[in-house]
Structure formats: C-alpha cells, structure tokens
Amino acid sequence: MITITLCLIVKNEEDVLRRCLDSAAGIADEIVIVDTGSTDRTKAIAAAYTEAIYDFEWIEDFAAARNFAFSQATSAYILWLDADDIFLEADRKKLLELKSSLSEEVDTVSMNYHLSQDEYGRVTRSLRRNRLVKRSRGFKWVGAVHEYLEVYGVSLASDIAVTHASLRHDHDRNLRIYENRLAAGEAFGPRDLYYFANELKDHARYEEAIAQYAKFLGTGEGWVEDNIAACGKLSDCCAAIGNSELTLDYALLSFRYGSPLPEFCCRIGFWHLNKGAYATAAYWYEAALQAPNPEQAWSLRNLSCETWLPHLQLCVCYDKLGDLQKAYRHNEQARAFRPNDAAVLYNKAYLEGLLFPDGQPSNE
After folding, report:
1. Rounded Cα gap, residues 242 and 246, in angstroms
2. Which of 45, 104, 129, 242 is deepest in the core (most CB within 10 A)?
3. 120-138 per-position pLDDT tens digit
C-alpha cells in the first residue's frame, strides 16, 4: 500500500477546513497545512488534525506556496486539495481502494473536479486535474495565479472526483494580482494572457477581455483546451456588448482547434434560434447530442449542453416547425433530467393540450 501526504495551502478558512479534512478521513498518512496569513481560527482547527502546520509569507504567488507545501511532504505520494474541496463518501472510498492497489510505477493520478451542481444534485461543470503524484518525481507547480502542476511519466486517469464546495470567494483577488504584475512591468505568456482575460470577463470588462483573448490566441502557443475555451469566452463577451455577428464567428472559430463540442453546438444553435432560423437551430442542437465529449477530457465540460439543454431547445425548434410529436419527445427527454423544471412542465402541459385534446394521460 502506498503512503500519502495531503497538502493544503490556506488562509482564513475556518468555515470550511474541518469539512475538507473530515471528508479525507483515513486517506492521508500525513497532513501538511501551509498558512499564508490567517487571522481567524484556521490554524487552531488545523492543529486538531496535524502538527505539520507551517507559515508562509504570501507573495501573490500560488505556485510558490504550493511548492513549499510539497517540499514538507515525506510520504511516497502527495495529494493536494483546496480548503473548500471535499471528497463525497463514494469518492473517499474509491480513493481508499486506489491507495491499497496503486502500482508504484504510476507517477500521477488525475481525478475529476466537479465545480457545480444543479438543484437535483447532478454535476453541471467538471474538468480533470492531476491530484495524486509521486513525491520522488519532484513535480513543480507553475504560475502565480491559476497555477498548474507540471507532470510527466506514467499516468492513471481515475474515476474519483473531488467536489468543489465553496462558501465564499474573493472575487477581486486574482485580478488584483494580475494587475499588480502588469504594473511591475511583467510580460505575460500565453497562459497568463488567457487567465487575465478570464478575470476581466468575470468583472464585466468585456472590451478589455476581448483584447486579451485575441492576444492570447494570436500567440499560437496556447494549450488546445484553452484555445477552445477562449473562443467560447470571446463569443460570450461579444454577446454581452451586443455584437451578434462576432458572437457567432467566435463560436465557429473553436472548430479550428478540434472537433465540435456540445457547448459550441448549443451556442451556434442558440444564435440561429434567436434569428428565427429554427431548422438550422435544430440541426445544431441535434449535433450537440451527437458530439463527442470523452469522460477523460481535460477541458471544462458544461454538462447541461450534453444532456437536458439541447432537448429543451429542440422542443422549441420543432414546435415552431410544426412537428409537435418531435417537440413533445424532446421535452420528455429533457424532463428525464429536470423533472420539476418550470419550462419543461409548461411545455408538457402545452403540448399535451394539443396532442391529446381528449385528455389522454401524460407520462407521469
């Protein structure tokens, strides 16, 4: 059986730290907590779980803090989490099973990262991250903000998930770091250009975000996942400022970097739906349901675009096209995912009134 050190960097996490560490019960042989300046009870809570608590002066560099945490680990493998991450019980059990069976030839294990859920508990946004790595490899974190773990060697893509369960977020922190770095005269590489643009977009500074995304794509050096995502974010920014033509153009630009993804098929379908081109919109929503999106994809997945959303929009399209049977069928498929959705239930009542005027029972 391998041994595992769990590493976290924290600051003022008294409201979530205990929940995080309890969710990892039994997994870690050692817990390393690196505190970057807490003024609440974070360190006192951490002390109930480990003696390995270290202070690290915050220098606006997440990679530096994480690398320091990794340097304190002594187990064969290192697992990292954020304080507002948790393992659901099923995933904790899977990780315990993996711990007992993992070959020491494996250098890195990736896990799904579930970022959000709907009201039915279904995951709506997910991506994949390297989570468990062999300490002897000396893997390093790279990037002051939106840092990543640079790995190589033998990898295992597990079906274990880490669930993000944030209670709060410093919305301005990352943008502040980027702007301070620019003010200091630092030149951004492709990855920083992309994530700086994301921060600008999140702060509704759309024109500035568009310029940074364009600069990022212009380098020709971005990761393919980031290139595709940038096209979607450019499309969103253009929609926000009312530029309809570029909204479509940037969605289509994503095809330059890979096969059509469900999210982009839905974007294009929505553009045509708003133009009243219902047959064309239906084509793209059908394409969304057929588009590949592998479970082990590293890019952020909008799972709504793979499940209920295309069906709901196809209901609208086929209703407009006069094919009520198809409209009803797609609404029922959407209802399988979202049984209490107001729009779905409205469509159900409306279409059953037209299709079953004699009161034929609906599918309950």
Report:
1. 9
2. 45
3. 888 999 999 999 999 999 9
